[in-house]
Design goal:
globular, 5-stranded antiparallel beta sheet, binds zinc ion, binds guanosine-5'-monophosphate, alpha+beta, 112 residues, HIT family, subunit A
Amino acid sequence: MDCLFCSILEGKIPSNKVYEDERVYAFHDINPQAPVHVLVIPKVHISSADAIGEENSAAVAAVFEAIPKIAKALGLEKGYRIVTNIGEHGCQSVKHLHFHVLGGTQLSETMN
Ligand code: 5GP
Ligand code: ZN
């Protein structure tokens, strides 16, 4: 399977790591859309949030347990936004579940 983020997890493609534990990896987005823009991913391949189910939701829980630690380490005490894009209409470009953590400035009120 050819997956960019699995390749990053395997170290085949370099990334700027901000956090790692047994189940979760986080790294700076290559094309940041905010002063802080980190991608948080499960180490298991899940194609998108639309593929979350009983069999893999523990990996997703681990991601959400990691995010507050990552936010704290990045100084996001004033808040931040978590975004996940799904499929064509959601403009998902990498088919490995990832949560964008955006912050470091006042974000816009618009969601789309
Ligand atoms: P999506 O559009 O699928 O929600 O988000 C994919 C994100 O991955 C984009 O924000 C894009 O900038 C980021 N990205 C794509 N390729 C790479 C890469 O090779 N390294 C890093 N660090 N980020 C990447
Ligand atoms: Zn993958």
